[in-house]
Amino acid sequence: MTIAASRIEEKLYQNRYLVDSGRPHIKVRRHQKPSANLLALTRVCPAQCYELTDEGQVEITADGCMECGTCRILCEASGEIEWNYPRGGFGVLFKFG
Ligand code: SF4
Description:
Blueprint: H1 2-13, E1 16-18, E2 26-28, H2 36-44, E3 50-52, E4 58-60, H3 70-75, E5 81-83, E6 91-93
Antiparallel strand pairs: 1-6, 2-5, 3-4
The structure holds iron/sulfur cluster.
Iron/sulfur cluster binds next to α3.
Protein name: Ferredoxin-like protein
Function: Could be a 3Fe-4S cluster-containing protein.
InterPro entries: 4Fe4S_Fe-S-bd, 4Fe4S_Fe_S_CS, ETF-QO/FixX_C, Fd_FixX
């Protein structure tokens, strides 16, 4: 189990990411209290882009997002997040092999 996890991390480390400064492609709307789905993003995002602040807000730092769509499936329809692909030339660059 640990061996598999380290292999995945090693593979993910090969990816590159070009940050589009000041133009995050995913945004979290302000909320009184995070829903169960929104809160789950702090655990299920494979790039660990989501975190819960001391003020009880779920926030995102989209740098490193792998565009897997998990957060889009869980929270876009409810309006809790706004999800777009990065602009052309920005975002993740996958390295295979
Ligand atoms: S698309 Fe995937 S990697 Fe990107 S922020 Fe959402 S859950 Fe994380």
